[in-house]
Task: inverse folding
């Protein structure tokens, strides 16, 4: 028999991932590692603070961890001076849409020639599952124990807001809630790097990622929560694609 | 019982017992065990004949536990 | 085309002459009085010299882009006021303190907390020398007194930043920003590009503190990083303090300690103070961190009284006290964004000196 699926030993070294059971972040790392194998060069990675920073040791390329929320501008500064390099910022929803929203927005406005991978798990997970910009209405978190209420505002449709900007060459939202979903993560990341290589502008992949620990669910329920609830607020699909010559 | 045309190698030390592979396996050949690995997580095992090498377990596993093997002549079992 | 001849321009414009001569290839910034003209000069002259300038949405983005450019191996800078330095502080902790990237920030001080005043101040001293950002780290702070020194120290700031792997702050003020003077820009020195390990694809994880596997609880390894930083700062404190002394030689009735534009005013007031019959000198810290404690202590050893002058409620005075081992005899200051004329300076210092002497006689 021949090998038909094999995880990257490099990504997993030295002793596997430190994410919780059923966390989607490991899937993103494995997908990213697969994609990078097919690229002509190893990208450089700028990793935000949050659960994403547990990725640093496993990244398929050189990696710098920067301040929370500002990874996009850090990556932009690097790319401006090394335009031939592939540059990728990895951020959680807390950093990308919350604390660093201004920097994320203007990175999109300027159409910086980088790829941003946003891992959206709907909570500030690294600190213990607090309210994030992306928490669904009614969802209990450690800072909204009674659930996200009207005074906390509705979940922020940030990718939809950015997708209307001419600087955003590609924006796709994918979800880790099925085997198919995981395959689409890989495809979307590959597409985003392709867009970066074509120099059309900013490429963003938002991954809806399960957080069973802080959603207080088992791992299968977390998948179902994405399928049934999260995706009705954050629909998956391609939101912007300027590789087709017209606005996405 | 379907013919066994594939198999999986399980890196037990990476498994966290999250159950996702067990749920997606269309042939129901995977099951959680009571055995704990060095990190203290229960680990999954291939418990019966019938693996088709479809790779769904490897697709969904967030921890890279599975290496999947299939007989040369077989086409991929699950498509995107 | 880089100008190397004599120039006549404001301090803010001169900063960009210095940046170009120093081989700075990247500038990002956001306008704030009194540093805005630095940004504007960069916008005009960086692209014209085949360098990159990005006007960002704010100071936070600017300092991060500077860090990114520095990580890419290029000399990079921004310019701001203490107000903007507040916004950059978190990033400076990360990139100067933790990641040890080189970079330069020119800070033109205006007085006051909050929005404050638009006039000159020296109340960014504590912020620059101690409190800029969280955690155990220091940045070298250079304090020029005139436009020529602003040029020279800005160029040197890049060298120091590269040598030690940290950000260097050039701490000016509103007077220095707008004063137009003649200055000379040195020939750009030939510098080999900084070798950068990052980006070679070897799986480098930065910064070093993050590369240590904290989840494994290896706090001994983390402490080793801290100890290395401690040694770096100790070597800077040993090798880099710099001060200038002027005025009367030998024993003094009065020693004035001041820095930056106010030190220049103090120096110009010396003839008037001497006319009162006093033997007077000025000692001027050029590096604020590391503070030139030895130079200040030596100067004070020969002086009957020591007066500290600042455009603040008293910030450098604590470093002076530590250096001379006692509280300075006088403190004179101006607030509100106002700097004294040389005559007003001399009069105020002489009044305070006389008050003390009368008090001693009584």
Result:
């Amino acid at each position: 028999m021949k090998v038909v699926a094999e995880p990257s030993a490099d990504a997993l070294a030295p002793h596997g991932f430190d994410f919780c059971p059923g966390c989607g972040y490991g899937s993103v790392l494995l997908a990213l590692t697969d994609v990078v194998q097919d690229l002509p060069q190893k990208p450089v990675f700028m990793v935000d603070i949050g659960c994403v920073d547990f990725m640093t040791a496993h990244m398929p390329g050189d990696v710098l961890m920067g301040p929370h929320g500002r990874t996009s501008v850090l990556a932009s500064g690097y790319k401006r001076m090394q335009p031939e390099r592939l540059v990728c910022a990895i951020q959680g929803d807390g950093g990308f849409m919350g604390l660093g929203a201004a920097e994320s927005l203007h990175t999109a406005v300027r159409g910086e020639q980088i790829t941003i991978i946003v891992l959206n798990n709907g909570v500030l997970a690294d600190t213990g599952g607090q309210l994030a910009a992306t928490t669904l209405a009614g969802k209990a978190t450690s800072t909204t124990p009674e659930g996200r209420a009207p005074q906390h505002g509705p979940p922020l449709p940030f990718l939809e807001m950015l997708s209307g900007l001419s600087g955003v060459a590609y924006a796709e939202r994918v979800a880790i809630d099925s085997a198919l979903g995981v395959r689409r993560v890989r495809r979307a990341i590959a597409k985003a790097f392709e867009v970066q290589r074509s120099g059309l502008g900013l490429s963003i992949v938002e991954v809806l990622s399960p957080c069973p620990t802080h959603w207080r669910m088992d791992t299968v329920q977390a998948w179902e929560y994405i399928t049934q609830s999260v995706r009705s607020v954050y629909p998956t699909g391609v939101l912007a694609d300027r590789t087709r010559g017209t606005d996405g | 019982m379907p013919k066994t045309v594939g198999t999986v190698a399980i890196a037990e030390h990476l498994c966290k017992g999250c159950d996702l592979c067990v749920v997606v396996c269309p042939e129901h050949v995977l099951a959680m065990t009571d055995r704990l690995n060095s990190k203290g997580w229960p680990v999954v095992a291939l418990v019966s004949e019938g693996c088709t090498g479809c790779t769904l377990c490897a697709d969904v596993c967030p921890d890279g536990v599975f290496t999947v093997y299939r007989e040369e002549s077989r086409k991929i079992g699950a498509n995107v | 085309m880089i100008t190397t001849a004599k120039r006549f321009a404001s301090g803010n414009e001169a900063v960009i002459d210095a940046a170009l001569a120093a081989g700075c290839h990247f500038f990002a910034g956001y306008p704030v009085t009194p540093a805005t003209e630095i940004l504007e000069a960069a916008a005009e002259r960086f692209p014209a010299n085949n360098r990159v300038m990005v006007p960002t949405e704010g100071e936070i983005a600017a300092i991060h882009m500077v860090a990114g450019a520095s990580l890419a191996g290029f000399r990079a800078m921004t310019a701001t006021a203490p107000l903007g330095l507040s916004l950059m502080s978190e990033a400076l902790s990360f990139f100067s303190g933790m990641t040890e990237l080189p970079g330069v920030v020119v800070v033109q001080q205006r007085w006051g907390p909050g929005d404050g005043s638009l006039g000159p101040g020296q109340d960014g001293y504590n912020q620059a020398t101690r409190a800029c950002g969280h955690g155990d780290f220091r940045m070298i702070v250079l304090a020029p007194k005139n436009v020529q020194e602003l040029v020279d120290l800005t160029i040197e700031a890049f060298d120091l930043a590269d040598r030690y792997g940290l950000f260097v702050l050039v701490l000016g003020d509103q007077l220095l920003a707008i004063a137009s003077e003649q200055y000379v820009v040195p020939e750009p020195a030939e510098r080999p590009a900084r070798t950068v390990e990052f980006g070679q694809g070897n799986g480098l994880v930065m910064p070093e503190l993050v590369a240590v596997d904290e989840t494994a609880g290896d706090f001994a390894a983390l402490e080793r990083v801290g100890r290395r930083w401690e040694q770096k700062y100790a070597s800077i404190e040993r090798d880099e303090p710099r001060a200038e002394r002027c005025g009367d030689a030998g024993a003094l009735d009065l020693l004035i300690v001041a820095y930056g534009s106010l030190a220049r005013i103090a120096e110009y007031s010396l003839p008037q103070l001497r006319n009162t019959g006093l033997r007077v000198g000025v000692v001027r810290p050029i590096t604020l961190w590391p503070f030139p404690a030895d130079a200040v202590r030596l100067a004070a050893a020969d002086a009957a009284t020591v007066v500290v002058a600042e455009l603040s409620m008293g910030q450098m005075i604590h470093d002076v006290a530590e250096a001379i081992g006692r509280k300075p005899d006088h403190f004179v200051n101006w607030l509100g964004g106002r700097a004294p004329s040389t005559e007003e300076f001399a009069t105020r210092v002489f009044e305070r000196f006389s008050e003390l002497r009368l008090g001693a006689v009584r």
